[in-house]
Amino acid sequence: MTFKAPDSLSEQIAHHLAERIIRGELAPGERIQEQKVTQALNVSRGSVREALLILERRHLVTILARRGAHVTRLDERSVRSLCTLMGELYILLGNEVARKWATEADLLPFLAIQQRLQQAHDRQDIKTFVAESFAVMRAAYPFADNPYLRETVENLQPAMSRAYYLALDQRKASMIDYLELFARLLEAVLARDLPRIREVLTAYCQRSCELVLAALAKG
């Protein structure tokens, strides 16, 4: 495997490992051995170490002295904590879009994402669907214009992707649920209805949390 710019080498390695964790190819609690990654990807050990630090910041691995890096475990406490926080961050982003959109052209990126989500649903393409669901928040960043909010969401996004992927992959969640949510959310944003935005996103995050926990229990 060959890695190239524009991302730094460590970021590319981190992304590669994150994808494996999100898809469940690296199991919770499994040790990630630096030497094996170095050999498999033909990269330096220093780059792998930096990549693991990135993954630790993104809550996908835990690094312990003399024990190395291990994939973080998903349990009820971590899932509920993550869903609660992400729900509030989503609400902040939704409110900023509702407050600041000026013309219909401002909402075109969200309509394009909605179309891509529908196409992924039609193909039952879980990976693309999860990726596009997070494209929604990135389309909202310019309205918020808040680098701290953006950094926080980006660092938490891989952990949330992992949880969503688990629920969808085990058929505990339906992609149509998210499509219906997104349609209601766009209606609320268009109407600049902030209480409705909170209602829609809170209810969805709570239900998503329960679906992830059900998938965990089954696993």
Task: Describe the model.
- With about 220 residues, this protein is mainly α.
- It folds into two domains: about 60 residues, Orthogonal Bundle (Arc Repressor Mutant, subunit A), CATH 1.10.10.10; about 140 residues, Four Helix Bundle (Hemerythrin (Met), subunit A) (Up-down Bundle), CATH 1.20.120.530.
- The chain contains nine helices and three strands, in the order αβααββαααααα.
- A hairpin with a 3-residue loop joins strand 2 and strand 3.
- It is globular, with a radius of gyration of 18 Å.
Secondary structure: elements and pairs:
Blueprint lengths: L8 H14 L8 E2 L1 H8 L3 H13 L3 E4 L3 E4 L4 H25 L7 H16 L2 H19 L2 H23 L5 H16 L3 H25 L1
Antiparallel strand pairs: 1-3, 2-3
Helix pairs in contact: 1-3, 2-3, 4-6, 4-7, 4-8, 4-9, 5-6, 5-8, 6-7, 7-9, 8-9
- Helix content class: over 70%
What would you report as the Rg, rounded to the nearest angstrom? 18 Å
Order of neighbouring strands in the sheet with most strands:
1-3-2
CATH class label of the largest domain: Mainly Alpha
Q: Give the overall shape.
A: globular
What quaternary form is this?
A: single chain
- Counted up, domains total 2
Major beta sheet summary = 3 strands, antiparallel
Q: Mean of residue pLDDT?
A: 90
Please identify which CATH superfamily of the largest domain we are dealing with: GntR ligand-binding domain-like
Q: Helix and strand string, N-terminal first?
A: HEHHEEHHHHHH
Q: Structural class given helices, strands, pairing?
A: mainly alpha
Using the 3D structure, state the CATH architecture of the largest domain: Up-down Bundle
Share in β-strands: under 5%
Any idea of the CATH topology of the largest domain? Four Helix Bundle (Hemerythrin (Met), subunit A)
